[in-house]
């Protein structure tokens, strides 16, 4: 009886246990499926987040190669990178903390931003040009590639934004002011020393900046001499600094170098009749000269001024003269009304006023605008004093000249090397 009762009770107990287990299994399977759903949802959310983050990354534009995106699109905030900041010397250190001087800078922010935009274009263009430079290039192709890149990146807009002056690509003993005229077949050679000097401008605020290219390492000390002399000049500049003191410092560094070329040693010289200069709005040479030898003028630098600090190192006489065919021209900044008898000269002047005003230009730029048979009219404008010709400046034939240049701004609180980049 007890066994029967036990037997009959066991199935009942077993039945209850099984039912409990089955319910538990059902609940666990429901929980598992719920967890799987949560995981799936989590994965979808994370995918969406990744997609969003990827889309955000895509929104940050990178410059193309070759460069084609205007810098205004690369900096949608409208704020452009500040140049290298250098502090003034001891007697002007108080400016850093002066609230009055800081307020002056805040008021000048739009001006600073314009010149920084021009400087950013310069940096990006020269980075690209350095990457494609090689012996065998036609000089005219080099210049046109550079200038067309500037036009794209600066969003060329008449006199509001564009090229500040013709691309100087002077070779060897030619120190400055040479660019090929239309039809010129000059080719860049391995043993050439080329000064690449070009300018950008926004609202008339000009960045004037140059560097030297030499493929043969034999010329490295010559390039180093002008680069270090330029950096020394920049360090010496400041508010109330005499221009002659800057020149003396530059010459001391420059002439501490020598260079061996094809087995002959040359003492590097500063070219005594070439200078840096102050820069005005739409005025590349604004009146003050920054010498690169001692004994210059006693005039002082002033707050708010822009200066192009440039140095020329030479293995020749250290003195230049005008030579070769002229390519550079510029309307006289001070010229008033001048009566012109030649109708063609009047037409050409109208073209110059509209497209360049008082910015420098070259014959290639006139060709690009569709001007033809203009040489007599151009000569007439030069003879009348309306336009000034700037022929190439040359040391003795067979010598070599290198150049480095930066644009600086003497801000109320500090000195900003506007055109400084990672390259020089």
Mean pLDDT: 90
Low-confidence stretches: 1-25, 51-58
- The level of helicity is 25-40%
**End-to-end distance:** 108 Å
If you compute it from the alpha carbons, what radius of gyration comes out, rounded to the nearest whole angstrom? 34 Å
Order of helices and strands: HHEHHHEEEEHHEEEEEEEEHEHHEEEE
What is the number of beta strands? 18
How large is the share of residues in beta strands?
15-25%
Describe the largest sheet: 7 strands, antiparallel
Q: What does this molecule look like?
A:
The protein is built from 10 helices and 18 strands. With 424 residues, it is of the alpha+beta class. Strand 17 (401-410) and strand 18 form a beta hairpin. Helix 4 runs antiparallel to helix 5 (139-153) and helix 6 (220-236) runs antiparallel to helix 7 (243-254). The chain is globular and about 60 Å long.
Structural descriptors:
globular, 424 residues, alpha+beta, disordered N terminus, single chain
């Amino acid at each position: 009886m007890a066994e029967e009762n036990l037997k009959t009770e066991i199935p009942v107990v077993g039945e209850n246990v099984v039912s409990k287990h089955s319910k538990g299994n059902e609940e666990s399977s429901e929980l598992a499926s719920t967890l799987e759903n949560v995981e799936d949802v989590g994965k979808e959310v994370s995918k969406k987040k990744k997609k969003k983050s990827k889309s955000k990354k895509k929104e940050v534009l990178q410059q193309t190669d070759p460069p084609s995106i205007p810098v205004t699109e690369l900096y949608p905030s409208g704020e452009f990178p500040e140049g290298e900041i250098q502090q003034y010397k001891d007697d002007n250190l108080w400016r850093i903390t002066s609230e009055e001087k800081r307020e002056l800078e805040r008021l000048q922010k739009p001006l600073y931003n314009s010149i920084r935009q021009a400087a950013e274009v310069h940096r990006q263009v020269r980075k690209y040009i350095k990457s494609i430079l090689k012996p065998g290039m036609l000089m005219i192709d080099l210049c046109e590639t550079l200038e067309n890149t500037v036009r794209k990146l600066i969003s060329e807009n008449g006199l509001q934004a564009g090229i500040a002056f013709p691309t100087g690509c002077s070779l060897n003993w030619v120190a400055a002011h040479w660019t090929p005229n239309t039809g010129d077949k000059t080719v860049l050679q391995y043993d050439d020393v080329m000064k690449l000097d070009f300018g950008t401008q926004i609202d008339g605020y000009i960045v004037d900046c140059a560097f030297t290219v030499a493929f043969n390492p034999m010329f490295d000390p010559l390039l180093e001499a002008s680069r270090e002399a330029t950096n020394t000049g920049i360090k010496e500049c400041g508010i109330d600094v005499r221009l002659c003191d800057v020149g003396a410092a530059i010459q001391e560094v420059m002439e501490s170098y020598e260079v061996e070329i094809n087995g002959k040693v040359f003492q590097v010289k500063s070219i005594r009749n070439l200078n840096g200069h102050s820069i005005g709005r739409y005025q590349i040479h604004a009146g003050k000269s920054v010498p690169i030898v001692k004994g210059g003028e006693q005039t002082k630098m002033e707050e708010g001024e822009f200066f192009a600090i440039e140095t020329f190192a030479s293995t020749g006489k250290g003195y230049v003269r005008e030579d070769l065919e002229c390519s550079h021209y510029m309307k006289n900044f001070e010229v008033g009304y001048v009566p012109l008898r030649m109708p063609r000269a009047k037409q050409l002047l109208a073209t110059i006023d509209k497209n360049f005003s008082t910015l420098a230009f070259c014959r290639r730029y006139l060709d690009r605008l569709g001007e033809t048979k203009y040489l007599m009219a151009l000569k007439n404008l030069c003879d009348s004093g309306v336009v000034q010709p700037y022929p190439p400046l040359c040391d003795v034939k067979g010598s070599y000249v290198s150049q480095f240049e930066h644009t600086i701004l003497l801000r109320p609180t500090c000195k900003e090397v506007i055109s400084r980049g990672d390259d020089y």
